[in-house]
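Tip: read the tokens left to right.
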């Protein structure tokens, strides 16, 4: 009887330990740490008579779109000092291609502006759209 009681006590203690460990690791009340991009937001430029938008999300995803149309190119981006690297993950423009650009943020009439200049990219579509001055929306 004592042996059964000891085994039952050990089993309950071990179960409580496992349950407590699992509940702590899956606690959804504590928000996950998120990183915020210093260039995050929606930026706009004009090419000919069309508005183009560059959306730089805080999760380091991006998209280029024309007027209010669906994005035609998107993927992920990384920042290093004054450079931004775009990596397309969409099938439409330049899938899997990397583009390296320099950027500088300043203000025009109290509106943030990002100037993007080509460093290296073999995606001519992205080069045509990305290079230039973009105003924050």
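Filled-in amino acids:
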């Amino acid at each position: 009887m004592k042996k059964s009681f000891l085994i039952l006590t050990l089993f309950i203690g071990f179960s409580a330990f496992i349950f407590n460990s699992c509940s702590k690791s899956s606690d959804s009340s504590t928000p996950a740490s998120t990183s915020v991009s210093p260039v995050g937001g929606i930026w706009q430029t004009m090419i000919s008579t069309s508005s183009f938008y560059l959306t730089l999300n805080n999760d380091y995803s991006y998209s280029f779109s024309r007027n209010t149309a669906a994005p035609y190119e998107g993927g992920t981006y990384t920042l290093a000092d004054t450079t931004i690297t775009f990596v397309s993950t969409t099938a439409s423009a330049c899938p899997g291609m990397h583009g390296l650009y320099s950027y500088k943020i300043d203000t025009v009439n109290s509106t943030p502006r990002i100037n993007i200049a080509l460093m290296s990219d073999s995606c001519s579509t992205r080069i045509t759209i990305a290079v230039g001055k973009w105003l924050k929306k």
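Residues 2-25 form the longest helix (24 residues). The chain is about 25% helix and 45% strand.
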